[in-house]
Design brief:
Layout lengths: L1 E6 L2 E4 L4 E9 L4 E9 L6 E6 L5 E3 L7 E5 L5 E6 L8 E9 L16 E2 L3 E6 L1
Parallel strand pairs: 2-11
Antiparallel strand pairs: 1-3, 3-8, 4-5, 4-9, 5-6, 7-8, 9-10, 9-11
Length: 127
Amino acid sequence: QVRLVESGGGSVQAGGSLRLSCAASGNTGNTVSMAWFRKAPGKEREGVASRESFGYTKYAGSVKGRFTISGDSAKTALFLQMSSLTPEDSAMYYCAAQRRTSGGRALSLMSAEYDYWGQGTQVTVSS
């Protein structure tokens, strides 16, 4: 089992920045990719960015160039630096981890391919 706890959400004006953190504990050595997802009211959950064991990353087109995902090699911490935020970025942001034996594709941005989830942290961007 892996436990994920997000922090760092909040309210910010358009154009501002926020840094989200995710603390992972438990059997983190048995994970492949870690990722950030977000869900806004009335919208489906969306993959934002992912990172795998060797540090390779993948981003959704809507955030490329504005968001940066990073983490440690032990996969005990995952971060999302968000800049140039817009109201469209407002959502609950979730940290997720992929179990090595589940068969999910590395760097996937599909929620169905992740096994462990945090409770989320709210990001609100005002215009």
